[in-house]
Write a structure and sequence with these properties.
The chain has 621 residues and is an alpha+beta fold. It has 26 helices and 8 strands. The chain is globular and about 95 Å long.
């Protein structure tokens, strides 16, 4: 599994290598007029040297000498001009204008029936839309370009488009798919005779690292280092050192990682013109490595020097990881308040990132364009395997039954006390509330039993977390209303317990849009919804599962939204089982008693996502 610090810097390196393809202008047009060709050649050289202001003037000169529309060669000359102009716009980050020009190029190419230029038009559209963050639209466009390239046998273009898909999967942190498309792209480029584009294969080790194949990545990096002339290819050499540092970081050889990073500043003067952001990413990598070496002072020096620039130039995923690094460094320095500040910002960024719709669209592209029936079957099988349940129960039940009997006796006494104290609806309400406790305890005790079987070091933490929740349930939930923030804190405690069970296979995001300290709510109203998300979502997925929780106050109404993914196509409202299915039914009954005609409970059971939105009135403290 690649670390977050590695992803932070690899995203930059992969992006730089990919951007070189944006400047790869084809030379298939044979009837471009000499005067126009001369101006375009000058403009391309100016663009490659990053002289964008000069390039714009040269492009204007080329536009002024284009043939009139009535001329037979007008469309061919216009296509040549539009391609170089597109390269200028993309290098200048004028992506909205680039989309319009790419659509002009597509129209002109279609008019003369030039399939290659039509494919390239879709490629330019995809590049511009991706830079605007429109990943789904970018995938749709590159899909159209890829279809043309496959049909016409354009191996070079097929290779470049596969590398584009690899970069999209890389951005979504899907190492396996990124590696698949990267390898396929290089294979196609070699078949097309474009060995110069893949001589050192520096992006291939990046995808290998993202997919956890660090030893293979290190082998390829050492091969690339032998084939690289550092004086003639300084950025290539710097990139190799950067990648090697990541491999050593993953292998927890932090001194070797730092040694590779310290070799890169010598190349800054050669790379500063075309890649001015290289020092930013290298120094952030240094901060992460020094943090692992417990050199928090020096790590903080590099972090503080770059964090402001990082927030302007990095994407949301990378900024999120920067905030987490800041929290870790300041925790090591003993700056608790500053560590909490960065941790809070990390959580806010983490809550705002949701890749579900894009991931689904790209999966459809993957299935559609895998080149054999076998590859398609493998891809479909991966998605179907996620529907299998994760069985956690063991054969030996003696300890489990003994603990469960003791807990049930305690809660039977608690329910008896409530029965004597209340009548009619209050009796029914408290019985419903009491059902929450054994329902939760069965799940947690089962986790504790599984950990004790393997003598896990996490078992004491589970016991302590369980004690905190029971203390809250037994002593603080007798009142008719409790502090809303405390209720959310108990949910956070529950999530920590479940994290021991699921580890990194589950991502939970909590986003509180308002300060909840000033409001009260009926106790233990929210926890069953969270339990339900785990039971019918996370427990049925082996990996890549997520739960999102969002809270907000609208006037005097509290809105609680929880969503989770689930196995694709599985209807997630099962029949009552031997052990019960009381979660949602319990909530519905309690709401009818507590807030008659004043509440809303909306349940959406989609094909691969389950959403519950609850709205209830709240009291101010």
């Amino acid at each position: 599994m690649v670390s977050k610090r590695t992803i932070l810097v690899l995203a930059f390196s992969f992006g730089v290598v990919f951007s070189t393809f944006a400047n790869f202008i084809t030379e298939q047009l044979q009837t471009v007029r000499p005067a126009v060709k001369k101006e375009l050649a000058i403009a391309k050289k100016q663009i490659s040297n990053n002289l964008l202001d000069s390039a714009l003037l040269t492009l204007q000169n080329a536009k002024n000498i284009l043939p009139e529309a009535a001329d037979p060669d007008s469309e061919i000359n216009r296509i040549a001009y539009l391609k170089v102009f597109l390269d200028f716009l993309i290098r200048s980050d004028k992506n909205e204008q680039a989309i319009k020009v790419a659509e002009e190029l597509l129209q002109a190419s279609s008019k003369i029936g030039n399939q290659l230029e039509m494919a390239e038009s879709y490629y330019f559209l995809a590049i511009a839309k991706r830079k605007l963050g429109l990943l789904k639209n970018a995938v749709e466009d590159i899909t159209k370009g890829l279809a043309i390239a496959e049909k016409m046998g354009y191996k070079r273009e097929e290779g470049r488009y596969h590398l584009f898909l690899a970069s999209i999967f890389f951005e979504l942190r899907d190492g396996k798919k990124s590696l698949f498309y990267s390898r396929k792209g290089y294979e196609l480029l070699i078949q097309s005779g474009n060995g110069d584009l893949v001589k050192n294969k520096v992006t291939l080790p990046a995808t290998e690292m993202l997919s956890g194949q660090n030893d293979l990545a290190l082998k390829h990096l050492k091969q690339a280092e032998k084939n690289t002339n550092a004086k003639k290819e300084p950025f290539q050499a710097a990139n190799i050192h950067l990648f090697k540092s990541h491999v050593y970081y993953e292998k927890k050889q932090f001194k070797l990682s730092l040694s590779e990073l310290q070799k890169i500043p010598a190349y800054y003067r050669f790379t500063n013109k075309d890649y001015p952001d290289l020092p930013l990413h290298v120094e952030m990598a240094m901060a992460g490595t020094l943090c692992e070496l417990k050199n928090f002072e020096q790590a903080n020096f590099f972090f503080e020097r770059n964090i402001a620039t990082a927030q302007k130039k990095m994407d949301a995923n990378d900024i999120k990881e920067c905030f987490e690094l800041g929290a870790k460094i300041n925790e090591g320095l003993g700056n608790v308040s500053k560590s909490l500040k960065y941790l809070k910002r990390y959580i806010q960024f983490n809550d705002s990132i949701n890749k579900l719709s894009v991931d689904k669209a790209i999966h459809e592209t993957e299935v559609k364009y895998q080149t054999s029936v076998k590859e398609k079957a493998i891809s479909d099988q991966k998605w179907m395997l996620a529907a299998k349940d994760n069985e956690l129960y063991k054969k030996d039940r003696y300890i489990f039954i003994g603990i469960s009997a003791f807990v049930l006796l305690v809660f039977a006494g608690f329910i008896g006390f409530l029965t004597y104290r209340n009548r009619h609806q209050n009796i029914r309400l408290n019985l419903l509330k009491a059902q929450i406790h054994p329902h939760f305890l069965f799940n947690t005790l089962n986790n504790l039993y599984a950990l004790s079987m393997v003598k896990s070091d996490d078992a004491p933490d589970v016991v302590m977390g369980l004690a905190n929740i029971l203390r809250y349930a037994l002593y603080e939930c007798n009142a008719s209303a409790v502090n809303l923030k405390k209720e959310m804190d108990i949910i956070a405690e529950y999530i920590l317990l479940e994290k021991i069970r699921y580890g990194d296979g589950l991502q939970v995001n909590i986003n509180n849009l308002n300060d909840l300290e000033s409001y009260k709510i009926v106790p233990l109203l929210l926890l069953p919804l969270v339990e339900n998300a785990y039971k019918h979502g996370a427990s049925k997925l082996k990996h890549d599962c997520w739960i999102n929780i969002e809270t907000k106050i609208k006037g005097n109404t509290f809105v609680f939204k929880i969503s989770n993914n689930k196995p694709n196509g599985l209807v997630d409202l099962p029949k009552r089982t031997e052990h019960g299915n009381i979660g949602l039914k319990n909530i519905q009954k309690r709401l009818e008693i507590l807030y008659p005609r004043k509440h809303q409970l909306k349940i959406t059971d989609g094909e691969d996502v389950f959403i519950v939105i609850m709205q209830v009135p709240v009291k101010t403290t």
